[in-house]
Give the backbone structure.
Amino acid sequence: MKKIIFLFLATTCVASIYAQTESDTTKEVSLRTVLISNNKFPEKKKNVVQPIEVITKKDMKRMNAQSIADVLINTGNVFVQKSQQGGGSPVLRGFEASRLVLSVDGIRLNNAIYRAGHLQNIITVDQNALDKVEVMYGPSSVAHGSDALGGAILMKTREVRFGRKKNVELLGANALVRYSSVNTEKTGSVGINFGNNKFGSVTQLTYTDFGDMVQGKNGVDSIMNLWKKNFVVDRIDGKDTMLENADPYKQVSTAYHQMDVLQKFSFKQNNQLKHTLNLQLSNSSNIPRYDRLTETSNGIAKSAEWYYGPQFRTLAAYTMDINNLQGFIQDVVFTLSHQWVKESRHNRNFKSNNLNHREEDIKVIAYTLAARHKTDEHELTIGTDGQFNNLKSVGTQTNIATDIEKKIDSRYPDGKNNMNLLGVYLQHTWKLMDEKVVINDGIRFDYNTLKSTLVDTSIMFKLPFQTLEQKNTALTGNIGVAYMPEKELRFIANISRGFRCPNFDDMTKVFGSKAGSGLIVPNTELKPEYTRTLDLGMQFNNGLIEMNVNGFYTNYTNAIVTDKFQYNGQDSVVYDGVLTPVFASVNKAKAFVYGGGLQVVYHPIRNFSISASSNYTYGRFNDDTVLVPLDHIAPVHGRFGTRYDASDWYTELYCLYNGKKKISDYNPDGEDNLPYATPNGMPGWYTINWRMGITVAKYVQLQLGVENILDKNYRYFASGMSAPGRNAVVAVRLNY
């Protein structure tokens, strides 16, 4: 083992020695010019006050990650929760799931059933099909509407390239074959771009097969025994049976596979007008809910089956880009889109014949329209967007012994469910003193309606009404300033307000965890949640040192939490024959979150760099004057690494780390998944990792890596499964 570690360390050291033969002078540079798309139109990053992290296509290729969730983890700046291998729920500044916006190509992925708990929707976007990812830290509601309380993650798929001739020609191609040992991952991806001077097409197809994940074998004995998978459940002669797991380090029931397809066609009508058709498909196999399949009671498994049905998403979008117009408006972009999402939950208790199915089918029609006026000093964007959700929710139960099926309670109302979001906004950028001072300001107004109907109100609990309806409005804004006294130095200050309108998961869910323990009922009096955030930051880049320091304070009001409630004037009702306390989602909590981050990159010699980052978040909410930890607050986390880049090869040695999460910092009732931690909380951890890539032939690159070299056994905070153990990775890429 020591020889293996020495070999990896020596690789980076040799690169460092080689680098010293190069010129050790550094060229003075200004803050990098990076184009981003936060404001619907390309904009220089330095002209946007909100803190932004850009992950480029080159970055993602080097990471060689298994999913887009793992891409975010590899930055060291975004915390990601996992309860199953087919998961990945990003956390920004203590906000997660329905309190973040996810978008692809400017189209919101958030729909009316995004829940407050952990989500896996982001893995339906193929990182092999992306040009870049932009992570927006802090409230982003002016540009992105509801849900952007803590930030937004904007994913942009590959741009269609056009040729220079009338004849159709091959403009680019890529292919990837990758194998990972820790879960026997087998990935194949192929893409092609062809076209002429008027027409272009991009196709990307990716298929990935993941086996059961193996956890690390090195750690504290008490933790090792706690997190081992000692049993599996099998059905023998029509009866559920607990069997010994032959390899307790293998997390049996984490395997799944997935296919992703991207197809884009673009037609350049003239130099000012372009039309694009964007088609996307993502479909997985069943995804086992590993955390639930490890639960026991008195040594007996609780569940025989617990899995998410195929994670299915389609998107069809038409975009019209108009550029370089004469007059007050120079640029216009319009997008009309349709998404179809299917997700489901299936569970069966141990030794029960009843398999429950709860299925959601949601269709979303949306539009965005933005127009920009631009001069040397001012940029003004005026826009409107809308999203129209239609949900069908079904609950059935199948007796696996008799095949008899009956209707049971659905997750959401079983009739018509509609939720509409409409917004208008204005964003303004003002550049002063030869762009040494840049002011960002904006305002947005939103109108939201939600209506649900219940067809059968007697399946689980008889409700005295059949219609749930509400209407909400929200007003948000932002104002900030960036000051660049020198071309290497930049200071920012920004105040922004985010909002989130209640959705089906907040308002309409009727959910009983267990008779006697609690029944959640609808509450039509819910109002939007709000965050108000102050950001302060400093950036410095002189070619030798790059530094980014930021701090923030967020005031969180009208926070929606599950709390005791009265139904028909009673705080308890008879549910399933048992007197059961009543709960509901209510606007109760007033909370605060603060924290900050530091990222440093040092270039001591040409082509060689040392980087480090650390991020801290602290959050509490006021529960009847008592301060209680907010859920979703990640522990201290970050990254440290060294890298050498040559013209035809690179190598990198890096460490990812998380601090300890004390049990006293867990939220006792929220989504922190306390049962899957240790009695003292979640221990801190670090992994040492190495990767390299080398061009072995024209257009062909070989990539090698070893992740978690020390084979540490660890878990991400709030996660219900252990992270990967030692993982050897080999990949071959073709890039033309």
In short: Helices lie at 2-19, 57-63, 68-74, 141-144, 221-227, 290-293, 504-507. Confidence is low (pLDDT under 50) at residues 1-30.
